[in-house]
Write a structure and sequence with these properties.
This protein is an alpha+beta fold. The chain has a domain at 48-207: OB fold (Dihydrolipoamide Acetyltransferase, E2P), CATH 2.40.50.90. The chain is 55% helix and 18% strand. It has nine helices and eight strands. It has helices at 2-21, 23-48, 59-63, 90-96, 116-125, 160-166, 183-201, 212-222, 224-262, and strands spanning 67-75, 80-84, 105-109, 112-114, 131-140, 143-151, 157-159, 170-172. The strands form two sheets. Strands 1-2-3-6-5 form a five-stranded mixed beta barrel. A two-stranded antiparallel sheet has the order 4-8. Helix 6 runs parallel beside helix 7 (183-201).
C-alpha cells in the first residue's frame, strides 16, 4: 500500500516538474483553445443570426454560396418575399431574439426571366408559410439572386428556377452575381438550358405552337404578293372615291349655274 502511494506521489511530482518546465507551452495552448472557442461562438452567432435585410448578409456567405432556410410570405413582381429562419441553438438563439429586428428578404430566381404566367403559377404553387431553401448566388441592391429549392416529400426537392423553365413559364437569362467564367455558373446555366429545352420540345407555356388558322393567316398577311394586291386595291378604292367626289362637285356646279340663269 505504501509502495502504491509512493509511486503515485512520484508520478505527480514528475507531472508537476514537466508542467513547470513547459509553462509557456501550456499558456499558448490555453490561449489557442480560448481563441478557438471564441471563433466557434462567433460562427454560431452568425449561423443563428436572423437576416432581415440583404445588406446584412456577410459577403463570405454569398461568395461561398451558402444555403439558407426561409418561409414564404408573398410572391410579387419583384420576387419572393421570404422570412429567414436561422439555425436554432437554445442559449444563443434565446439571447439573440431579444435584439433581432423583423423584416423579409427579397429573393429572385437567378437565371430566369419570368413570364406573367410564371408569376401566376408561383402564386398558386407556393403556399404562405411554406418552407424553402435558397442558395445565395449574388446580391444586387436589396435583392438576392438565388437558386430556390422546395421540398416535395422527405427525400425529394424541386428547384423552382428549373421547374419554371420546364413548364414553359419563363426564359433562360444570365445568372447575376456569378462570374461568367466560373464552373458553378456554367453548371447551373446548363441545367437551366436543359429545362427550357424540355418545354420547347413539348410546346409548353410560352412555347406552345399557334393554331393552324393563325399560322395560315400570318403567312397570308406576310406574303409579298398579297401585300402588293392589298396596296393596289387600296389605291383603286381611293381613286374611285376621288372620281365620285369630283362627279358630285360637277353636278352641284351645274345645278348652281341653272339656278343663276333662271334668276
Amino acid at each position: 500500500m505504501a509502495e502504491r502511494r509512493s509511486a503515485a506521489g512520484e508520478a505527480l511530482g514528475r507531472v508537476s516538474e514537466w508542467a513547470d518546465g513547459h509553462l509557456g507551452l501550456l499558456r499558448s495552448l490555453s490561449a489557442g483553445l480560448a481563441a478557438a472557442g471564441l471563433l466557434l461562438l462567433a460562427r454560431s452567432v452568425r449561423l443563428t443570426t436572423k437576416f432581415t435585410n440583404a445588406v446584412d448578409i456577410p459577403v463570405e456567405f454569398i461568395e461561398k454560396n451558402v444555403k439558407l432556410r426561409g418561409k414564404i410570405h408573398h410572391v410579387t413582381e419583384k420576387g419572393l418575399e421570404v422570412e429567414h429562419i436561422p439555425i436554432t441553438i437554445p442559449i444563443v438563439t434565446s439571447i439573440q431574439r431579444k435584439w433581432q429586428s423583423k423584416g423579409l428578404l427579397l429573393v429572385r430566381l437567378a437565371g430566369v426571366e419570368l413570364a406573367p404566367s410564371g408569376m401566376v403559377w408561383l402564386q398558386k404553387e407556393l403556399k404562405p408559410s411554406q418552407m424553402v431553401w435558397f442558395q445565395l448566388l449574388g446580391r444586387e441592391d436589396l435583392a438576392l439572386e438565388c437558386r430556390v429549392l422546395v421540398n416535395k416529400g422527405r427525400f425529394l426537392s424541386v428547384c423552382l428556377n428549373e421547374e419554371i423553365l420546364r413548364q414553359g413559364l419563363g426564359r433562360t437569362a444570365r445568372i447575376e452575381g456569378l462570374h461568367h467564367d466560373s464552373r458553378l455558373y456554367w453548371k447551373l446555366h446548363k441545367r437551366l438550358l436543359r429545362a427550357e429545352l424540355k418545354a420547347l420540345k413539348k410546346n409548353k407555356g410560352i412555347w406552345q405552337e399557334e393554331s393552324f388558322s393563325e399560322r395560315v393567316r400570318d403567312r397570308i398577311s406576310n406574303n409579298k404578293c398579297v401585300q402588293t394586291l392589298e396596296t393596289v386595291c387600296e389605291l383603286v378604292k381611293k381613286l374611285y372615291l376621288k372620281a365620285e367626289w369630283e362627279t358630285c362637285l360637277e353636278g352641284c356646279h351645274v345645278s348652281v349655274l341653272h339656278a343663276l340663269c333662271k334668276i
